[in-house]
Amino acid sequence: MLIIKTIAEIKNHLVPKKNAAQKIALVPTMGALHDGHLALVKKARELAEIVVVSIFVNKSQFNDLNDYEKYPRQIDSDLEKLKTCGVDYVFLPSDEEIFSQDFSVKITPTNLVNCLCGAFRAGHFDGVALIITKLFNIIKPDVALFGQKDFQQVAVIKKLVTDLNFDVEIFAHETVREKTGLAMSSRNQRLDEMSFAKAAIIYQILFEIRNEIKISPESVVKILSEKKEKLLKNGFEKIDYLEIRDERNLKLITNFIPSQPARILIALYLSKVRLIDNLQI
Amino acid sequence: MLIIKTIAEIKNHLVPKKNAAQKIALVPTMGALHDGHLALVKKARELAEIVVVSIFVNKSQFNDLNDYEKYPRQIDSDLEKLKTCGVDYVFLPSDEEIFSQDFSVKITPTNLVNCLCGAFRAGHFDGVALIITKLFNIIKPDVALFGQKDFQQVAVIKKLVTDLNFDVEIFAHETVREKTGLAMSSRNQRLDEMSFAKAAIIYQILFEIRNEIKISPESVVKILSEKKEKLLKNGFEKIDYLEIRDERNLKLITNFIPSQPARILIALYLSKVRLIDNLQI
Fold it and tell me: Would you kindly state where each structural domain of chain A is located, as residue ranges?
């Protein structure tokens, strides 16, 4: 496993692989790796001959500077974890390597971004689109892997790939979960033991909603409202959203039609940590 | 010379060339080809094994819908001209092929664009950055060629290539001129005979400015002011700008220092046609 810190060097390594028609998979991460990331790496290993994991905490996608500063950074243990997973290259650039001092371009997805996390995190998906465009141009992967936990992110990136004509297949991996059912996230580290246990209710509630909506498809609004109340009673501080949306276009669903591919999506705060999750109906 | 109208087809043709390590040159055009374009093609032929010319009137870079509608379109004669120049592929997509109905991403260069044409043509360079990003992803050229007449455009594209990490060399070809000295442009077709003759003064004035500034480097403001007056007296309707700027960063120069790489840039209207030109000092 080679650890590479500059764009020039990773390009030098990958050009001969590309020329030899070896398939390259990219797993873009912000580090603080958990089993969700490692599942992506394992899948990448199946899909391609060369596996590149990038670790870069991309400031441009943080709307909240405090969240950026508190984002866990633990490169040494990240590298330890990756060593056992058959990774070929870890791309570990500095901030300056990715964003030069006179960096001056913005990429703005204009669809799919005005709801869910996009509505609560101003500029977040601009930052995501920017780093993904840069990483795709640097690594030139055949396939890139993302976790389904970030459902809206995957949708936005798929649209970006189509709109900007990237030759990259986007693989969305099912969400990997703690034993309690809590979706794995680097931010889970910031939960104390009690909050960590309490957070398990999120996934339970997604299941409850799914079951109840299948029984009463016309009661979407009422069901969601009751579940929000339950979450707040259980000590969650703030719910950014708890909604059902069409998986194809993220349009809001207030009357569930079984033939429609729908998903329940949630974002909420516990102990000042923002958690997200989603479940297909 | 193959004429190809779809993204899928041009990609299919170029992938094996790429895999065989053949160098690809791209000449992006909006058609209405003149000897300036053909000089780019000739240079492309020297620089690469495969020459692709794209013809696409990119609506997204027109700030003025009237200008877009009046932009000359003459595909048949364009293709005739290209046939004699050793072009391998003409990429001739429809509007819908490039911009699907639900197309939804914006690219905004934020540096170098707030002056010169960028100040007068709102959104122009967003449109340029977008089509160039898409063409680079579709064609994957090793080198792309542009005319130096569009000096600011070349600067913006070079910055885009750096900022988004494209592996494309940008070749800026010197401006090709009519016998009268007028910079070749597809828009020149819209000048009647008299205006065409009159437009020759633009290049003469750029030369006058260069000579006078070399003699009186402290008199930049005065010299430019006199030349603007002279142009208006000669029947030009409106001058968007006549300025001297640093070639490296497009910063305005009001006191010329001989060691500084400087360029005189002009945009003005004659018979309602917008003409631009520039000259290195």
Answer: 2-173, 186-280
